[in-house]
Amino acid sequence: MTLYDDKTIQLLESKANLIRRHVIKMTFAAQSGHPGGSLSYADILSALYFQVMDHRPEDPLWEDRDRLVLSKGHAAPAYYAALAESGYIPMDDLINLRKLGSHLQGHPCRQKTPGVEMSTGSLGQGLSVANGMALAAKLDRRPSRIFCLCGDGEMGEGQNWEAAMLGSHYKLDNVTAFIDRNMMQIDGPTENVMSLEPLADKWRAFGWNVLEINGHDMRQILDACDKTSKVKGKPSMIIAHTVKGKGVSFMEGAVAFHGKAPNPDEYRVALKELGESI
Amino acid sequence: MKWIYTSQRKEYANALIELGKTRTDVVVLDADLSSSTRTAEFAKNFPERFFNCGIAEQNMMGTAAGLAASGKVVFASTFAVFATGRCWDQIRQSIAYPNLDVKIVATHAGITVGGDGASHQALEDIGLMRSLPNMTVIVPADGIEAYKAVNAVVNHNGPCYVRLGRADVPMLTSVDAKFEIGKATVLREGDDITLVGCGQMVAACMDAAEELHKRGVEAEVINMSTIKPFDEDTLLHSVKKTSAVVTAEEHSVTTGLGSAVAAVLGEKLPSPMKMIGTPDCFGESGESEELMRRYGLTSERVALAAEEVIRRKK
User: Fold this and answer.
1) What is the mean pLDDT of residues B247-276?
2) Any chain A CB within 8 A of the CB of B89?
3) What is the pLDDT of residue B1?
4) Which single residue of A81, A181, B47, B258 could bond B275 by disulfide (Cβ 3.0 to 4.6 Å)?
């Protein structure tokens, strides 16, 4: 197992913090968007874009790149922030999220934004797309790893389970998917709206290598990605236990901030809590 | 007319196998119907580039999108009713919106599916596909055009829908005839009425024109093998001359070829018109030919409609 020094961990944590600040600023400027589910996977994004994934922001279509499909497309603000921090898009563009004429659509658009691998938004479709990319990589004998970020609520979509079958049937060991297990969906706790548990057992039963981690612990995220890179013959699912709205006290575990922007007072408090004075 | 009947599906398989040899970027997907759609023949020749997705059309379309996003040209096949309605949102979100090179070649379209009945008779698929931005919609008139359509879509940038039937259809076009996406062809010239058909109803239009000729009416017949992008020029050029139109399709008139023709003429050249196709209804079980007669998809009905429309001309 790779041992990560404290400096690397601190750098990735600070990038995650930057992503969270961007999310607050972007959704405040847009006065819409989805802060809750963006904050919950900021640490995973940071680990992927600044450590795990082999990619070239200056050459977004480099064939051998690792790819990320954001199945939970509504969590676009954090995604765009990671793309900007990586250098795919200008930092100044972030503030134009959801504005007319901006390339930063409410949900990711492959045609408009460099670095976006697939247009998403209608839930439950990303894993199928990741499988297709993984098949293509195997056909071309490319080393690309395909990552997919799913929400927990979207596990209600049957297509995920179709994709689960295909992934194990074709032994797509170049796929590593995450479920951002923040326990919340729009109408309330996932287990009240539509029970998902036992979620890990379900994925194991479908033939996947399953890991469960704390999705806010940088070392655990990195270790999990290392482990899944060595698995042969089956795809991997990392169930990342997270807190919706992580990093902003009044957004943590609050369903209300699934798809609601902060007001001016909340905006100031949120940024202060994230270590930025305005 | 005495027609020779051939299989569109067989020509699809022939075209795919030839493409498999020359185009290493071609990948084929199916959803447990490969022996019926005939993609099994590609699978036999190129097993490493064929993926059966099982009975899971939504996942098949998403997988196709991922392959296409990685540079593959993907053919995805199943029955028309499942290839369009069952996974319409997946086609919309993951294929049409990102404008990816997925070629949906659907077989068993229309009422001629026969005994399987309404659940399996796609009479809405043209409408479902032509309502999607970026989507090209092709309805080959015969086996020869099916072969040419497959070879055309593989070089066409973006998503395409190609609609094929189950039953053998009259061989209408010649091997030498030019096939171009977005271009209709005038198969017979005439001054009194324009008959616009797609799929196997083009042959019915040709038979109707022959019958009308005996009654002293000269019909122009247009094969509208591409429904989208729609060849307005060929239609308007003809209707300016004839001032009367009958459309014919093995599909619901509410969203298919007839609707597309009506939309163009309504805005640019209002003319007496009648649409032959299925009305706003589901199909039922029966033999293919019985069903075609029951739903009025015959050359006799096209000819009757033509005479009625001609009487409405000013």
Assistant:
1) 98
2) yes
3) 79
4) B258
**And the tokens for A168?**
């194990």
Concerning whether B308 is annotated as a catalytic residue, the answer is no
Give me B155's structure tokens: 């070089």
The partner residue sitting opposite B72, judged by closest CB among A136, A162, A170, is A136
ipTM: 0.97
Where do the structural domains in chain A lie, given as residue ranges? Answer: 6-273
ω into B170 cis (within 30 of 0): no
* B133 touching chain A per CB within 8 A: no
Among candidates B163, B24, B160, which has minimal Cα distance to B95?
B160
Question: For chains A and B, what is the number of CB pairs under 8 angstroms?
Answer: 109
Q: Which of A105, A135, A165 to mutate to test the interface with B (most CBs of B within 10 A)?
A: A135
Cβ contact (<8 Å) for A128 and B92? Answer: no
Could A132 and B99 be called an inter-chain contact, meaning their C-beta atoms sit closer than 8 Å? no
Distance of CA B118 to the CA centre of its chain: 19
Q: Does B134 touch chain A (CB under 8 A)?
A: no
Q: Collapsing DSSP states into helix, strand and coil, what is residue A224? A: helix
Tell whether domain A6-273 is in CATH 2.130.10.10: no
Per-residue pLDDT for B86 more than 90? yes
> Nearest C-alpha of chain A: how many angstroms from B12?
23
pLDDT at B175 over 90: yes
Smallest Cα distance from A67 to chain B, Å: 10
From the candidates B11, B41, B57, B211, give the one annotated as an active-site residue: B57
Q: What is the mean pLDDT of chain B?
A: 97
HSE toward the beta carbon, residue A171, CA cutoff 13 A: 5
Q: Is residue A84 within 8 Å of A91, Cβ to Cβ?
A: yes
| CA–CA gap between residue A205 and residue B166 (Å, rounded) | 38
User: What pLDDT does residue B314 have?
Assistant: 76
With cut-offs at 50, 70 and 90, classify the pLDDT of residue B22: very high
Backbone dihedral region of A253: left (phi > 0), alpha (psi from -120 to 50 degrees) or beta? left
Q: Which structural domains are found in chain B, ordered by start?
A: 5-170 (3.40.50.970), 185-308 (3.40.50.920)
Q: pLDDT digits over B112-157, tens only?
A: 999 999 999 999 999 999 999 999 999 999 999 999 999 999 999 9
What is the C-alpha separation between B195 and B220, in angstroms, rounded? Answer: 6
The pLDDT score that the predictor gives to residue A2 is 72
Cβ contact (<8 Å) for B58 and A121? no
Nearest to A258 by CA among A185, A156, A174: A185
- Min Cα separation A101/chain B (Å): 17
CB nearest to A118's CB, from B71, B89, B94: B94
Residues paired with residue A239 on neighbouring β-strands, in sequence order: A179, A212
Query: In this predicted structure, what is the pLDDT of residue A123?
Result: 98
CB B219 within 8 A of CB B192: yes
Average confidence (pLDDT) over B19-40: 98
